Amino acid sequence: MYDPHDFGTFGRFQETPVDRMSPDMKAAYEFTLELRGLMPGPHKIWLANPRLSRTIVPTGAYFQTESTLTKAEIEIATNLICGRWTAAYANYEHEKIGEQAGGLRPEAVQALIAGLPTSFEDPREQVVYELTCALIARRVVPLGLFRRAQELLGDAGIVDLTVLLGWFTAVSLTLAAFDVPSSAVGLDQ
User: Fold this and answer.
1) What are the pLDDT digits (tens) for 116-136?
2) Across-strand partners of 155?
3) With contact defined as beta carbons under 8 Å apart, do 36 and 171 qualify?
4) Which residues pair with 13 in a beta bridge?
5) Which of 188, 87, 178, 82 is nearest to 136 (CA)?
6) Predicted pLDDT at 88
7) Which letter does DSSP use for residue 138 in this model?
């Protein structure tokens, strides 16, 4: 039965307008804007815990500007992990981002989200796809796959990829817990 109290301004989450934020929340909000330039999806929810927000925001910002992975590689992994966790909002957003900013073929992005097989001509993109598939399917990473990833991405790239998967697991589970739909916009939009 429909109960309007089950919904907030962003899925189940009730956002706090900026002018009503506590000093800690406002500082975390401003910190996020400084690093990201906007308040993307899960960051709105993470503001409910300002201390955690100030700790986690730099990780996401790192992947925007400093990662050893290309935007296409990031979006391959992101679309796979968001699809794995079935977070509607993240899937909707990153389907567009994967195509537009990542330059990925629409059919490939759709396959990533749906968990269907696809492939990539670029050897680095292919190894990111294969390593991510092995990791999120809870499979052992074969030594041969690891060696190919190490050759193409280096240890730093493998670390970037695994932390990116953890990051987007946190993103996806946050959005899923608060039942954020693909159509969510929140107070700031």
Assistant:
1) 999 999 999 999 999 999 999
2) none
3) no
4) 10
5) 82
6) 92
7) T
Is residue 179 within 8 Å of 9, Cβ to Cβ? Answer: no
**Do 144 and 134 form a contact (C-beta atoms < 8 A)?**
no
- What number of residues does the chain have? 189
What whole-number distance in Å separates Cα of residue 38 and Cα of residue 181?
Answer: 19
Query: Which CA distances in Å does 102 have to 44, 69, 76, 78?
Result: 24, 11, 8, 11
What are 10's strand-pairing partners?
A: 13
Residues 79-96: what's their mean pLDDT?
Answer: 94
**Residue 186 vs residue 57, higher pLDDT:** 57
**Which tokens is 132 given?**
């991510």
Looking at residues 92-115, what average pLDDT do you find?
96
Kindly report the pTM of this predicted structure.
Answer: 0.92
Q: Which residues contact 96 (CB under 8 A, 6 or more apart)?
A: none
Distance CA 181, CA 170 (A): 16
